Amino acid sequence: DQQVKQNSPSLSVQEGRISILNCDYTNSMFDYFLWYKKYPAEGPTFLISISSIKDKNEDGRFTVFLNKSAKHLSLHIVPSQPGDSAVYFCAARAGNNRKLIWGLGTSLAVNP
Amino acid sequence: NAGVTQTPKFRILKIGQSMTLQCTQDMNHNYMYWYRQDPGMGLKLIYYSVGAGITDKGEVPNGYNVSRSTTEDFPLRLELAAPSQTSVYFCASSPGPRSSGNTIYFGEGSWLTVV
Predict the structure, then answer these.
(1) Average pLDDT of A86-102?
(2) Which of A22, B35, B54, B84 to pair with B41, CA 20 to 30 A apart?
């Protein structure tokens, strides 16, 4: 039972355009969401997060949007760069639970 | 700026052998984790620790053991290696519960093959 779902295993975009990565969740107790980026042969690195009290968080080219009613969040990368090519994981946690629940990842390819 | 360091990077084990994956962090984080990632799958939590002397099972603990004698170190032990344990293993750490977001910092991964 996948509580955090990333339904697109892969995404390909042109350099300079917007990349939109989507994540859906089923557990209404989730109150904190994170995005991680992973390059091949490396560990995941933290990218951006959002609390359930917000609907948007922005950090440079990266913006995360949260729609609580739809149990949906998305990561926008504008403009996309070839160096953004990586696997992006969505993760969520509930309250003080230290365990993060992870999605399966979306592989983003940004083409020059 | 070491962060989370795990060793070895690559290892091939025979069925039934034992080994320990080492993990150390220099950020004085209370929380440490071991994850495994199988091909095409997300991260699965094996064990975690909220502080020295305290460990707890995650989603997939069977076949593994951990210990946390110091804040810095969190080794993962495989007692009787099985082919199902072929995976990439990630050690991670995060600050204590009052820190915002519980951002987790990962090591570079250990590729383990059991043949």
Answers:
(1) 86
(2) B54
